[in-house]
Amino acid sequence: MMDLKQTKSNRNLWFIFFLLSIGIFIFLFWWLYAKESASSQGLTWVQYLPYLNCTLNLLTAVLLCVGLSFIKAGKQKLHRNTMITAGLTSALFLVSYLTYHHFQGDTKFLGQGLIRPIYFFTLISHIVLSMAQVPLILATFTFAFMGRWTTHRKVAKITFPIWLYVSITGVLIFFMLKII
């Protein structure tokens, strides 16, 4: 009976994650594409936000790998703390990213030749998977905080590679925009 209740509760949670994710996506679409950008004139700090974003993405990737090594070594408390920190660095990235795009709008990719399709493949896969990672991260953290370890582990096995890919491709996209 308890297993049936937990299954129904999990379904309800997934529905909540789904609705929350739709709300987040609608907000992000509006923020990035529908609303007008503010002027960054006189705000010199805005130009440094892409560097902060890259650093936060890199730090998140490192924390994810360290967190994985902790759980494989049976160090649950260190794993928990590291993954919470990874969640915080991802949240800080999102705030910084939205702030940058509030003032600067889109960044155009100027590269030509073979790098152009590589850049757009990387960017599109990054965007699509970043949308998928939102409900997955929410679910992974929620199931962990609820102590539903079996469900947490199942979801984390999907969340981890997507979150890592999105973090690493965020760094790659930064370098492609800045170097090329």
Key descriptive features of the protein:
5 helices; 180 residues; globular; 82% helix; single chain; mainly alpha
Report on the structure:
The chain has 180 residues and is mostly helical. The protein has one domain (44-179). It contains five helices and no strands. The protein has helices at 2-34, 49-72, 76-104, 115-145, 149-179. It is globular. The mean pLDDT is 92.
Taking the sheet with the most strands, its summary is:
none
Beta-strand segment tally: 0
> Which of globular, elongated, flat, extended, rod-shaped describes the shape?
globular
The whole-angstrom Rg is 18 Å
**Distance between the amino and carboxyl termini:** 59 Å
How many separate domains make up the residues?
1
- Tell me the β content: under 5%
Q: Determine the mean pLDDT.
A: 92
Percent of residues in helices: over 70%
Given as residue ranges, the uncertain stretches (5+ residues, pLDDT < 50) are none
The computed structural class is mainly alpha
User: Can you count the helices?
Assistant: 5
What is the string of helix and strand elements? HHHHH
